[in-house]
Amino acid sequence: MSIPYSGTIRRSGGVVSAIGKQLRGVNLKAAKRITVKFDPFSENVTHTRNFLHYVSSSKIALTNPNCSLKTEIVCDRSDPTIDITLVPSIAETVKINKVTFKSANLTCLELLQLLNKHISSLAPQEQITNTIQTKLEKKKGKKK
User: Fold this and answer.
1) What pTM was computed for the model?
2) Reading across the β-sheet that carries 68-73, which strands appear in turn?
3) Which of the 8 DSSP states describes residue 7?
4) Strand duo 31-38 + 68-73: pairing
5) Concatenated DSSP letters of 16-82
6) Which of 56, 95, 104, 138 has the most other CB atoms within 10 Å of its CB?
């Protein structure tokens, strides 16, 4: 009598692949401005700085070229915070103007998950207007 195998076939990719998965889902169309404020001499600032690095990459910046990313470096031993100001049209429908993440005790992965949950979900869905044309329709379009 054998026991059936119950479990995963292989291990998960770890934190790095989870961060990559969250980065693929980031959409900043709902954000107008992102302000990252931290004290570089504070203890819990590493994950906030990593988050800033990931959000400032070119692929994520292309999701909304009008979104400005501002970094405020302070020296007052305050906890790191991330303030996200929403686009007025979306802020009007949701009735929220600003979202603040207090990131002192959050990891980079948790910050990206919160960004996807609260900001990327508010982004308007893109309309896909692909129509399949046959060769005959393409030729008719060229003749006209």
Assistant:
1) 0.78
2) 68-73, 31-38, 81-86, 98-102
3) S
4) parallel
5) HHHHHHHHHT---TTEEEEEEEE-TTSSS-HHHHHHHHHHTSHHHHTT-TT-EEEEEE--S-PPPEE
6) 104
